[in-house]
């Protein structure tokens, strides 16, 4: 009997260890959204395939020894702001395409990149622990001295807020569906995919936090704290029924900022803010008003 219990205990320990390792691997290796995947679904894969088509250049820059690809678009308004687009976990610069028709008439320049481990970029995702340096390297590589508006969604929203707290080049931030703490969206993604999370997520994050130099710890990661340190205007856009990033997080982040504004999109969820016509119209109104105030 004791031998059987010991065997069961060993089996449970092995299963739990495997679940922890799998969870850490899954979070740092998100699904890739590439040009090929977009075209395979009958969607535009780059700005030139939009209707109407938008002119753009492709180039890359090096950050942490990794070549990160970029789309660079001239905007239709020479007096408008420069906007840098930062995608979320499991997304890529392809996710910027649904936002470009709104931004293009308002901006003088639009830049979008693939973060490490996403889209066409090599590397792994560090869940926001190291990507801030990649965005700062992009701002340096653009060679533009004019003030910049950062627009990010989900993971990218938090990165934009953290950068704004320390970089004077940032004139404003548009944060879609941000979250305060790193485990929040991870837990909800695992739950939505019916994967285990109750016993394996916390130790997986403990390991990842060690691997990423403690940058995922609550005190260092909290996006509300970064928002409180930013001096530029901050617009938070959040779907009312966001199942991945709670709208309460977005409200708290906006409330922590000295110049924060919170726009709740009625009936909005996490991924459909720019693909549903009614939700898109609400997002467009918020973004257009914010960019006009920045100008």
Description:
The protein is α/β, with parallel strands linked by helices and 295 residues long. It has one domain (31-180, 222-294): 3-Layer(aba) Sandwich (Rossmann fold). The chain has helices at residues 2-28, 35-40, 100-103, 131-142, 155-164, 183-192, 201-211, 218-221, 223-229, 247-256, 277-294, and strands at residues 57-63, 66-74, 82-86, 109-113, 148-153, 170-176, 234-239, 260-265. The chain has an 8-stranded mixed β-sheet, sandwiched between helices. Helix 10 (247-256) links the parallel strand 7 (234-239) and strand 8. Helix 1 packs across helix 7 (201-211), helix 4 (131-142) packs across helix 5 and helix 9 packs parallel to helix 10 (247-256). The protein is globular, with a radius of gyration of 20 Å. The model has no long low-confidence stretch (mean pLDDT 94).
Keyphrases for this structure?
8 strands; alpha/beta; Rossmann fold; 295 residues
For the record, give the distance between the C-alpha atoms at the N and C termini, rounded to a whole number. Answer: 75 Å
Helical content band: 40-55%
Succession of helices and strands: HHEEEHEHEHEHHHHEHEH
Find the structural class using helix and strand composition: alpha/beta
Q: What is the overall shape?
A: globular
CATH topology (level 3) name: Rossmann fold
Amount of beta strand: 15-25%
Summarize model confidence as the mean pLDDT: 94
Q: Could you name the CATH class?
A: Alpha Beta
Q: Low-confidence runs (pLDDT<50, min 5 residues)?
A: none
Under CATH, the homologous superfamily reads Alpha/Beta hydrolase fold, catalytic domain
Number of separate domains: 1
Number of strands: 8
Number of helices: 11
């Amino acid at each position: 009997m004791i031998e059987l219990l010991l065997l069961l205990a060993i089996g449970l320990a092995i299963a739990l260890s495997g679940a922890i390792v799998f969870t850490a691997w899954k979070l740092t290796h998100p699904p890739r959204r590439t040009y090929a995947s977009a075209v395979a679904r009958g969607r535009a894969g780059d700005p030139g395939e939009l209707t109407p088509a938008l002119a753009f250049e492709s180039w890359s820059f090096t950050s942490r020894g990794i070549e990160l690809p970029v789309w660079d678009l001239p905007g239709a308004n020479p007096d408008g702001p420069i906007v840098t687009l930062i995608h979320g976990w499991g997304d890529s610069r392809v996710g910027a395409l649904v936002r470009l028709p709104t931004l293009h008439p308002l901006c003088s320049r639009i830049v979008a990149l693939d973060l490490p481990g996403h889209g066409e970029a090599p590397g792994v995702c560090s869940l926001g622990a190291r990507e801030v340096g990649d965005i700062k390297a992009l701002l340096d590589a653009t060679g533009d001295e004019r003030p910049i508006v950062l627009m990010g969604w989900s993971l990218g929203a938090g990165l934009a807020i953290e950068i704004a707290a320390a970089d004077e080049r940032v004139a404003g931030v548009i944060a879609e569906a941000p979250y305060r703490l790193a485990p929040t969206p991870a837990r909800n993604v695992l739950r939505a995919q019916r994967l285990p999370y109750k016993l394996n997520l916390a130790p997986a994050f403990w390991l990842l936090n060690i691997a990423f130099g403690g940058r995922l710890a609550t005190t260092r990661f909290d996006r509300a704290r970064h928002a409180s340190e930013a001096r530029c205007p901050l617009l938070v856009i959040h779907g009312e029924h966001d199942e991945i990033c709670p709208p309460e997080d977005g409200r708290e982040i906006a409330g922590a900022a000295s110049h924060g504004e919170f726009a709740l999109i009625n009936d909005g969820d996490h991924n459909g803010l720019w693909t549903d016509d009614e939700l898109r119209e609400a997002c467009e109104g918020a973004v257009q008003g914010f960019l006009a105030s920045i100008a």
